[in-house]
What does this fold into?
Amino acid sequence: MVPFFPVEAASRGVSQTLISAVFSCFAVAQMIASPLVGRLGPVVGVTRLYNIGIATAGLTTITFGTLNYIHGKNAFVVACFLVRLVEAVGTAAVSGCAFTIIGLYAVAGFGMPFYVLGGTMVGAALLNQWMMPPLVKCERNAVPFLSMLRVFARSFKNWLCLMIVFLYSFVFITFESCMALYANKVLGVTPSTLGLYFLVATTVYALTSFMWARLSEHSRNPYVQMSLCLLATTGSLLLIAPSPLLNTAPRWWLLGLGQTLLEGFFGGAYIPCFSQMLQESVRKGLADDLVTQAFVSSVYWTGYSLGSVVGPVSGGLLVDAYGFPVMMTCMAGLALLVWLLTVMQAVGTACSEGRRCPSGNETEPLCRA
It folds into this structure.
């Protein structure tokens, strides 16, 4: 819905703030549901809960495609909110995108992408139920949820990774909810062409994500990689609009280049976060079992959903008040702040590794930044 829904809604007189709120309401429900999913998964069965969620998301996605037949602006907005809220419950444990079908909008109108995507998701749920091995129920951990949360919260690494997860969803959901109108009005980029931008950018993410995962997996200090990628992310955010700080005129190729760099580098900071949070939680005393994995997953997706809640609304307000380039500049500033914290953690990890593995030479420093 990213490349064309904002354009369709704006043609009905819906403001950017309300358009962004449609994205945010999804994240609100997802944020509330994520902790419940984390607790229910080990009890109900992860496979069963996953398939129920993806089937629900598929059916509501199909329903969203029919909302174009509602003529009144207010009724259309209310229906969008209601359907997105139900969809969010189904996708609390499911994350997926289908930008490659966006060209169907240009061919068959508003409803077709939702029908195809929703039908595909329902089909995927049926296929998963048949093919996926069941992850059976397990005994609930005797450690209360709040006690697990206190153990998790004792680590700065966990907070930093959670901040990166928050930033990731904040940036992408805000950018996606606001860019379509900017691209259409300022650059003359049509929704179908914008879909090609997303196809190229997400293909770059797919090609680079494996590399980032492998590098972080074999690194003793993945925060070095994460900090470098966050710095590149900051630069790409400044390039997209472009930022008023660059004093450069908007160009379609700047939008495409910035979006592609954003997809290519942000994954290098985001991808290691879950494994780092899980390892750190176990190191702090939580059991290395399915319950802890479900707990960390629920905290992870709660942080992700929180970014999706705060981002579109605040971004929409900034766009309505100051314009898209200023909003992107503010997000670049936020990314720069998280980059600084990640650099501090990278240095701290390097110092810690140096103390654990001192050199035999007494004159050499134990900490090599």
